[in-house]
Amino acid sequence: MMNDFCKIDGCNKPVKAKGMCSMHHQRWWRNGDPEFLKRDIKKVCKVDNCTSDAKCKGYCTVHYARWRKYGDPNQVRKVIKTCTIEGCNRSHRARGLCASHYQTWARRKKASSKQEYSEALNRLRSSSWQPVRLLRSKIHLR
Predict the structure, then answer these.
(1) For the chain, what is the HEC assignment?
(2) Are residues 59 and 87 in the same domain?
(3) 3 and 30, same structural domain?
(4) pLDDT > 70? residue 63
(5) Which pTM does this prediction carry?
(6) Residue 57 domain boundaries
């Protein structure tokens, strides 16, 4: 039996069981067909009116990402087209703000964190506590 080859046309591997090589025997065992290929089956996204191929959990990549982020594959993020500051009609850039308001917000955020850091450092110098290490945003004490 060691000289026997797989009974599937074009396969020259040695026989494992039932006249088939290991690969074809496993395909027959799992699927009932030794020439079955899983990649030949194309699954379609389970969202209505979506014809994309399913990649994970029955969803295409777009709907799967929405499902993970919002819990609903049909949920679409809210698109902000104009600045959210009252009276400003300029186009949106980031965080719901136009370029001008965003830059102002970013500068204030950096300035306030520097100010908080320097105030905390001054409080430490005036107290009896000994700092273990100083980080930009957090101060760890013993």
Answers:
(1) CCCCECCCCCCCCECCECCECHHHHHHHHHHCCCCCCHHHCCCECCCCCCCCECCECCECHHHHHHHHHHCCCCCCCCCCCECCCCCCCCECCECCECHHHHHHHHHHHHHHHHHHHHHHHHHHHHCCCCEEEECCCCEEEC
(2) no
(3) yes
(4) yes
(5) 0.38
(6) 42-77
